[in-house]
Amino acid sequence: MGYPVMLNIANQHVVVIGGGKVAERKIHGLLEAKANITVVAPTITSGIQQLEAAGKLIWRQKTFSPDDLEEAWVVIAATNNRDVNEAVAKAAKPYQLINIADDPERSNFHVPAVIRRGRLTIAISTGGASPTIAQQIRRQLEELYDDDYGRYIDFLYQCRQWILRNVHDEQKRKELFKAIADESFRKRGDWEEEFEQLLKNVIKEEIRRKEE
C-alpha cells in the first residue's frame, strides 16, 4: 500500500530514459508540473522533438549510462527494453525517486492517472496493478468534474484568501468556508453575487451584536 502525496517538482531535475510514446506521455505530465527535464535516448518521437525544439526539455542523443542520473531528483525509465530499464533501476541512488514503467515492484513511486481542473487535482492509482483501470476511472471522473468545476475551485481559492485577510472572527470564517463549499452554492452559479450576499449577512450580524 503506497502513501499518497502531492510532490512539488517545479524546477527540479528529472531524467527520463527513453524516447517513445510512453516517455512522451510521462513528459507531458512532468511539464505540467514545471519540472526541468532531460531525456536520454538514441531516438525520440516527433512530439518530443517538438518539445525539445521549443526549449521545453534537453535531449541527450545517446544510450543510457549510469552517469546520466547524476543530480537527478526524479528518474523515469520508460524504454521498451527491459535490460535498459533494469540498468536504470540498479544505477539509481537510494535518495532518488524512480519509476520503472514496466516494473512497479522495482519502482519507489507510481505515476497515477491525473485530472487537472485549475487548482483541483484528482489522482487515481491502482498501485501499478492496472493502469488501464486507472484510466477508465479517470474518464468517468472527467465527466463528473468538468472545466466548470475547475473555475469553481479557483473561485474558492480567491474567496479563501479574502476571508483569511479580512474576517478575523474564527467562527465566522468557518461559517463562510462551509457556505461557499456547499454543493447548493456551487450549483446556483452566481458565485460572486452569492458571496457578496454572504458577506453582507456577516456584516449585518456584526452590527446587530454590537447594538445588543
Automatic annotation (TrEMBL):
What EC identifiers does the entry list?
1.3.1.76
- Write down a Pfam family by its short name: NAD_binding_7
Reactions performed catalytically: precorrin-2 + NAD(+) = sirohydrochlorin + NADH + 2 H(+)
Enzymatic class: oxidoreductase
**Pathway(s) this gene product operates in, as recorded in its UniProt entry:** Porphyrin-containing compound metabolism; siroheme biosynthesis; sirohydrochlorin from precorrin-2: step 1/1
> Siroheme synthase central domain location, by residue?
117-143
Stored SUPFAM superfamilies: NAD(P)-binding Rossmann-fold domains (SSF51735), Siroheme synthase middle domains-like (SSF75615)
Its keywords, alphabetically, are: Lyase, NAD, Oxidoreductase, Porphyrin biosynthesis
**GO biological process: what's one of them?**
siroheme biosynthetic process
GO MF annotation: an example: precorrin-2 dehydrogenase activity
Q: Quote the protein name from its UniProt record.
A: precorrin-2 dehydrogenase
Q: Which organism is it from?
A: Parageobacillus toebii NBRC 107807
